[in-house]
Amino acid sequence: MDPTNISTRLxxxxxxxxxxxxIAFRRAxxxxxxxxxxxxxxxxxxxxxxxxxxxxxxxxVVIDQKLPGMPGFELCKTLxxxxxxxxxxxxxxxxxxxxxxxxxxxxxxxYVVKDPSESYLxxxxxxxxxxxxxxxxxxxxxxxxxxxxTYHNRLRSLASALSLAEEQERRRIxxxxxxxxxxxxxxxxxxxxxxxxLASSDGLRDAVDxxxxxxxxxxxxxxxxxxxxxxxxxxxxxxxxxxxSLTQQSQKQHGIAIEFEDDGQPKPLSxxxxxxxxxxxxxxxxNVVRHAQAKTAEVSVxxxxxxxxxxxKDDGIGFEPAEIGPAMDQDKKFGLFSIRERLESLGGxxxxxxxxxxxxxxxxxxxxxxxxxxxx
Length: 376
Prior knowledge:
Elements: E1 10-15, H1 19-32, E2 36-41, H2 44-53, E3 60-64, H3 72-81, E4 88-93, H4 97-106, E5 110-114, H5 120-198, H6 202-229, H7 232-236, H8 239-254, E6 257-262, H9 271-292, E7 296-304, E8 307-314, H10 326-332, H11 336-345, E9 349-354, E10 360-367
Parallel strand pairs: 1-2, 1-3, 3-4, 4-5, 6-7
Antiparallel strand pairs: 7-8, 8-10, 9-10
Helix pairs in contact: 1-5, 5-6, 5-11, 8-9, 9-11
């Protein structure tokens, strides 16, 4: 592609005190047939004042190094510090190659050595056009990255809101099961007890005993279901008590020795953080049961500064932390990627230390709340 093939006018702010060089600059663009609108400044201070007033009138700034007062490179550095959103091209004299290198390192887009023997004027239009296009590419890429980041943050917020809404629905269902089914079963058991007392034969009493036994089992199953759907302890006694109860249940149901430890310090948590951390610990313990092939596990909760830290360790087969991602969620149902995303949306973080054959340690951190109730 011909770099001089553009359809719009190139608007240049030329900062050059030498009249002969300014004339040569204009002549070079006329010769190249590039449509160019050139605004001239003789001093760096004048150019700085123009650019501070607004940059929409220009596509790039061309700055000569040898200016009265502030040198060209100093002007470039000032414009970079002030984040003037225009590409900068520095004109240097022969023998100033090191200055040109320093300018590029500082963030100047390009430089041109004013060496007549190398026909620098013929190269000048091409260099400026390339600088403008590179800047346009950078701007477009940055805008795309910003849009992607905004979209990503919205997805995180949506995932967090969805998680909280899911937990609220779980809590509602658990409450209804406990208050309706659970209480009705308990009432039925009481009534059957009276039937047993009034029974006139051993056969009837045996039948009532069998029904009462079934009701007892159903009550226990209902209580277990309530805890699985939404732990009432999480809301009645707080996060720490709920996690301790969860470790006991997991140990009882799956036969894995799970040790729980708490530092005893108060850890106030907002509703969002409390729910998310509990869901995360429940998911991590489920991973230990389903995937880790572990014999023992440890769960610890501690306060560190204004953060709560939750450690979940196991002596299982381990994995490579680099594998964590959406694909892992889909294929192995680990949920680690989802946990990390949701935690980060609330200002938390997740660290994973694991190696094949050497177990796994997952550390969750989240901010404490000054307004929430004590969650010890």
